[in-house]
Write a structure and sequence with these properties.
Bound molecules: adenosine-5-diphosphoribose
Radius of gyration: 18 Å
Helix content: 25-40%
Oligomer: single chain
Strand order of the largest sheet: 3-2-1-7-8-9
Number of strands: 9
Largest sheet: 6 strands, parallel
Strand content: 15-25%
């Protein structure tokens, strides 16, 4: 097998399921209990900011709770990255911080971060672990009433797309983990990787929407499948 020099890994909500966080589109997922257009669009925030803030406040409280921690899948990715001599980029759609807690280093939160808040007046982004509301003051510009979760809502542009596509164009291995393949642009990364001639692998609980686009797939819980697959990966 040819040497593997450049790897892009994409993760979604499925990798954090065994850490106790809900996915979106599974039967017990977040979008089964609340409508996207009520909590995850700029229009929803303009219409009912209290409702939107409360949705993210509840999720933030859950994330900082003592019982949420990285699982063996997060840890395996960090361990692999630490021992890999080539280029490794982890792109996550997740807004949790479990990859960082596991020790991942070169990573992009394309859909933002739940533990950060952004000021609508000055654009400054600040770490934020508490509830967020209309009275909160931007630590940079001092204005109240403009702080929002630093997350990408439907209709907004994901972060760092140039850097992600540059890595996809260079990669020789693309691994997609725990994502249903319903949301673009992330769902299209496998095609970009294929165009670059990369080997493409899906590690998921079940076949995703784009399952047929991958050359290889292993189905099972991330906490088992991901450590096993990366431990067996021969990078040449
Ligand atoms: N191990 C591996 N995969 C799992 C596990 C598990 N333990 N549990 C669930 N999965 C799989 C599901 O089978 C599903 O294919 O994870 C996938 C989760 O899919 P979604 O809930 O759609 O989550 P995701 O693909 O990350 O969603 C993308 O949608 O609403 C937005 O912004 C949100 O970033 C999110 C985006």
């Amino acid at each position: 097998m040819a040497e593997t020099r450049s790897i892009v890994v994409l993760t979604g909500a499925g990798i954090s399921r065994e850490s106790g966080l809900h996915t979106f589109r599974d039967a017990d997922g977040i979008w089964a209990t609340v409508k996207v257009e009520e909590v995850a669009t700029p229009e929803a925030f303009a219409r009912d900011p209290v409702r939107v803030q409360e949705f993210y406040n509840a999720r933030r409280r859950g994330l900082v709770g003592a019982d949420v921690a990285p699982n063996p899948a997060h840890l395996a990715l960090a361990e692999f990255e630490a021992g890999f001599a080539g280029d490794f980029l982890l792109v996550t759609q997740n807004i949790d911080d479990l990859h960082e807690r596991a020790g991942s280093r070169n990573m992009i939160h394309m859909h933002g971060e739940l533990l950060k808040a952004r000021c609508g007046f000055c654009g400054n982004t600040a770490g934020w672990r508490n509830d967020l509301g209309a009275g909160d003051v931007c630590p940079a510009c001092g204005k109240a009433g403009g702080m929002r979760p630093h997350v990408v809502w439907f209709g907004e542009m994901p972060f760092e797309m140039d850097r992600i596509y540059a890595a996809l164009e260079e990669c020789d291995l693309f691994v997609s983990i725990g994502t249903s393949g319903n949301v673009y642009p992330a769902a299209g990364f496998v095609q970009a990787a294929r165009m670059a001639g990369a080997r493409t692998v899906e590690l998921n609980l079940e076949p995703s929407e784009g399952a047929t686009l991958f050359e290889e797939a292993i189905y099972g819980p991330a906490g088992t499948v991901v450590p096993d697959w990366f431990a067996a990966l021969d990078t040449g």
